[in-house]
Design brief:
The structure is a homodimer.
Chain A: H1 5-13, H2 16-27, H3 32-36, H4 43-55, E1 59-61, E2 70-72, H5 75-108
Antiparallel strand pairs in A: 1-2
Helix pairs in contact in A: 1-4
Chain A binds a DNA duplex (30 and 30 nucleotides) through α4.
Chain lengths: ~120, ~120
Amino acid sequence: MAADQLSRVFAALADPTRRDMVARLAVGDATVGELADPYDVSVQAVSKHVKVLTDAGLVSQTKDAQRRPCHLEAEVFDLMTKWIERYRQQAQERYDRLDAVLAEMRDDERPTKHRNRKQGAAS
Amino acid sequence: MAADQLSRVFAALADPTRRDMVARLAVGDATVGELADPYDVSVQAVSKHVKVLTDAGLVSQTKDAQRRPCHLEAEVFDLMTKWIERYRQQAQERYDRLDAVLAEMRDDERPTKHRNRKQGAAS
DNA sequence: GTCGTTGTCAACCATTCGGTTGAGGAGCCG
DNA sequence: CGGCTCCTCAACCGAATGGTTGACAACGAC
């Protein structure tokens, strides 16, 4: 199983239908039936999708008679954003520094092809 | 198949191993073998992971003799961030100004029964 | 109470996924 | 050339996924 929350969140959003549901829920809460409406799949399938979103912490459900209004939880988005930003920044940084590194390498060696690969082990 | 890029990106990052690889690549480029090193899985499995990341646009590979140095592509992160931010903001907004306003706006639609429900409808 | 609505659970099916092993292509080195 | 390294492709396997249908619990409406 996906185990950790981040995995569950990403997995949940990997499905276009579920992303679409999130988009809809961003506008306002909706019951399972309302969520199911735009799609030609069965209500059970939608119920499953909602469960996936709920397990991921993206959605919470309350009770309203037989209905189960779904509410979008904004906090989990921060979890993703944090992860993404972290590595995006590192990658960007590294990219920005690339010129310097390349210049140095260029200066250091002539095109003897590879001699000492691996800039991989940085820091 | 997942079809669109956003789906592929999210699906790619849904796997902890692949997220880990991204984390590693954020530090610096690495060959497939170097990527495989920390894990107890076969090189072929890692190669598959790299392919998934590549198909998602998160990673690019170049040629260096037999090696295939992997490079993290920062741009795709923006695609995700954009999507996330969009709906996070909507959800947050909606949360901030509470249901009262929307419930009022929506009070007129009320289909014959149960008027009690929240602001479920989206156009 | 009975009926209709709403949603979930369970079982099943086809496909996908992450892993394996085996084969082999590409490229350096001796 | 032959051998070694690095990596990918192909086939296979078990588990998870997304969908279906059928049953049924919960609840309001009559």
